[in-house]
């Protein structure tokens, strides 16, 4: 099922998918004068839900790829601490604490006390 979702999201997030959605919207709009308002409303509602899903899936993929790349950079640099790798899986409070500690260390390195 995931493969189908990712393939659909990939198709709809590119120009051909956009054109398909535009043609569907034009067809739905053309059906309104024939008394098919309920069908048009239904189709456009489903399309909106699908588009929202596409945005969420693409956002997930982008975020996961960015995290992997950042983790690779952190691990590859010998002078960095690796305890931030995987921090995106921590509880929000733990992330805030770690962020506050990193910001404080950065300020101290720049000669500014917080």
Automatic annotation (TrEMBL):
Pfam family, one: Iron_permease
Any one GO BP annotation for this protein: transmembrane transport
The keyword Membrane is annotated on this UniProt entry: yes
Keyword tags: Membrane, Transmembrane, Transmembrane helix
Segments passing through the bilayer: 16-36, 42-60
Protein known as: Mlr8076 protein
Species assigned in the record: Mesorhizobium japonicum (strain LMG 29417 / CECT 9101 / MAFF 303099)
Lineage of the organism: Bacteria, Pseudomonadati, Pseudomonadota, Alphaproteobacteria, Hyphomicrobiales
